[in-house]
Amino acid sequence: MELSLSTRALGGHTVLEVGGEVDVYTAPRLRERLIELVDAGATQIVVDLGRVDFLDSTGLGVLVGALKRLRQAGGGLSLVCDKEPLLKIFRITALDQVFPLFATVEAAVEAGPAE
Q: What PANTHER family does this protein's entry cite (predicted)?
């Protein structure tokens, strides 16, 4: 499966919509895009995982790395995820305690800056 990435601005946040599978083969593309966004000055990023069908440990590592990079830049990263299989991965790894998780992009933006 292919990975799709698209970006838009919403309420002072940069929304990165991700689709397809995030795995050892596609995660480097996601990492590169997140680094590009941070290097371009984005400090509040919302990663929308609503169209992600599969997420492995490599993908989780990319998200954790992006969170660290954003925190060093004084920003934050929020995730949008409403699919139970993906939410289960975040709960099992305790990353639901690390990332702010939201059901919709609008809820993530309304919550304000992520820490």
A: ANTI-SIGMA FACTOR ANTAGONIST TM_1081-RELATED, ANTI-SIGMA FACTOR ANTAGONIST TM_1081-RELATED-RELATED
Q: Which option is the CATH number for 3-107: 3.40.30.10, 3.30.750.24, 3.40.50.720, 3.40.50.300? A: 3.30.750.24
**Strand partners of residue 77:** 45
Predicted TM-score (pTM) of the model is: 0.95
User: Any residues with CB less than 8 A from the CB of 59 and at least 6 apart, and which?
Assistant: 22, 23, 26, 27, 30
Instruction: Report the pLDDT value the prediction gives residue 1, as an integer from 0 to 100.
Output: 66
Q: Determine the 3-state secondary structure of 74 from DSSP.
A: coil
> Beta partners for 55?
22
